[in-house]
Specification:
This protein is an alpha+beta fold. It has a domain of about 180 residues: Histidine kinase-like ATPase, C-terminal domain (Heat Shock Protein 90), CATH 3.30.565. It is about 70% helix and about 10% strand. It contains 13 helices and seven strands. The chain has a five-stranded mixed beta sheet, covered by helices on one side. Strands 1-3 form a two-stranded antiparallel sheet. Strand 4 and strand 5 form a beta hairpin. It starts with a helix and ends with a helix. InterPro entries: 7TMR_DISM_rcpt_extracell_dom1, Bact_2-comp_sensor_kinase, Sig_transdc_His_kin_internal. This is Histidine kinase. Keywords: Coiled coil, Membrane, Transmembrane, Transmembrane helix.
């Protein structure tokens, strides 16, 4: 392959790297991609100047080449600042000092440059600048060597190629004429320098690829951390919500317990008033029956007082209580009321809210006619499903009876508070039927 072909391959490769960096700059809009694009562009400018150096005066071509190298070094130092320094660090301060020296060289060279004759001062400044450029390269190598990631390693290799290329250029083209440095040697050295430059630009371009990869990994990690934090926050909110719900449930349970006690304590005061009236009439008419009436009334109110102690009572105790309660009603109404109990013994140990039967019997007496020729028949039975059935015949009073709210609503509320199945009510075919769930002792204990 001829020198011209190699030169063309080299130039095309630099253009390809320039376009690649420019596209990445346009896509990502990050400063680092712009700096790499300018870095490659500065070398394209140098190549253009080198190709046209023979058509320009020697002093002019030298000035333009040195200005291009000054711009290149400023951009290179900015790359070092972005990649390897942070605000306030000593390395950042020294890098800024180096940039200032490059600016001084560029401006000073422009001032002392003379287009028509050799200028010793300008030549000395040029040699000093080349030494400064080598020191800048070595500084970049040192900064990159302090890091261990792929970006730093590639930048280290690229800076090393830059340093070797600078040393070779300084030895062959800026120093004395060596006896062995023939034209062929210069041509070969120029190819080596171009190869090093190509390797340098390739390493710097690969830096972008790895830098992008590191940014994506960092973003993924940050996203994972953010998602984990969000998950943690959601879990924390969920725990707080559950704790709040638990606290609300506890308050509701306490409220329900208070309401349940209040419901259990609601007894129709008219019952006591009517019972005392009945007792008053019995004292004169039948002292013995009055004594029995007092005993049953005492049993009824003893049960009423104890009913407030527990949310549930056994069916056996409730039936014993309703028999005493029925005795009081029968004493008052005579044959106008008839209570029939047919409960399977296996269900006597089951439980239900206390005073349930009393409320149902009282409700039946309150809303129906109770007369000897029209007796109110109330039956209490159990069905095969383990439920208690309370039934009475319907013979409603002609005038509407005002209700104080104690009755079926009270029973439904108690069952709802206890978390049990609700009673069912059937009103039709001349019968009023209430079916009550019975709670097993083990279930209530659980």
């Amino acid at each position: 392959m001829t020198h011209d072909n190699l030169r063309l391959l080299f130039t095309g490769s630099v253009w390809a790297l320039f376009l690649l960096n420019a596209v990445q700059w346009g896509l990502y809009r990050q400063r680092i991609y712009g700096l790499f694009t300018l870095h490659t562009f500065s070398w394209l400018s140098s190549l253009f100047l080198y190709d046209n150096v023979l058509t320009l005066p020697a002093s002019t071509s030298t000035l333009l080449m040195n200005l291009s190298m000054g711009f290149f070094k400023l951009n290179f130092l900015e790359l070092v600042l972005v990649l390897f320094t942070h605000p306030g660090s000593s390395s950042r301060q020294w890098t800024r000092v180096a940039q200032a020296l490059v600016v001084v060289y560029v401006l000073g060279g422009w001032i002392v440059w003379q287009p028509t004759k050799p200028n010793v001062v300008y030549e000395v400044m040029t040699h000093v600048f080349r030494i400064l450029a080598l020191l800048i390269n070595l500084g970049a190598v040192w900064l990159a060597a302090r890091r261990r990631d792929p970006v730093a390693r590639l930048f280290l290799v690229g800076s090393a190629f830059m340093t070797l290329r600078g040393l070779l250029s300084l030895a062959l083209f800026s120093g004395p004429k060596w006896p062995w440095a023939t034209q062929d040697v210069y041509a070969s050295a120029n190819l080596v320098i171009q190869g090093m430059l190509m390797a340098e630009l390739l390493c710097f371009s690969l830096c972008l690829t790895f830098l992008r990869r590191l940014q994506e990994v960092a973003q993924a990690r940050q996203q994972a951390v953010t998602e984990q934090e969000l998950v943690g926050e959601r879990e924390q909110r969920r725990r707080e919500s559950l704790e709040a719900e638990l606290a609300v449930q506890q308050l509701e349970q306490e409220k329900m317990a208070v309401q349940l006690r209040a419901l259990q304590g609601q007894v129709n005061p008219h019952f006591l008033f009517n019972s005392l009236n009945t007792l008053s009439s019995l004292i004169d008419e039948s002292p013995r029956q009055a004594g029995e009436f007092v005993d049953e009334l005492s049993s009824v109110y003893r049960y009423l007082l104890r009913a407030n102690d527990n949310p549930l009572t056994t069916l056996r105790h409730e039936l014993d209580f309703i028999r005493s309660y029925y005795h009081l009603l029968q004493t008052r109404h005579g044959t106008g009321i008839d209570l029939r109990i047919a409960v399977d013994d296996q269900y006597l140990g089951t439980q239900l809210p206390p005073l349930t039967l009393q409320l149902l019997v009282e409700n039946a007496v309150k809303h129906n006619v109770v007369l000897p020729d029209q007796p109110l028949v109330i039956t209490i039975t159990t069905n095969p499903n383990g439920q208690l059935v309370v039934q009475n015949n319907l013979q409603r009073k002609a005038s509407r009876v005002l209700s104080n709210g104690v009755g079926l609503s009270n029973i439904l509320t108690q069952y709802r508070m206890l978390g049990q199945g609700l009673p069912t009510v059937y009103d039709g075919s001349g019968q009023f039927v209430v079916t009550l769930p019975l709670v097993c002792a083990q279930e209530s204990a659980g």
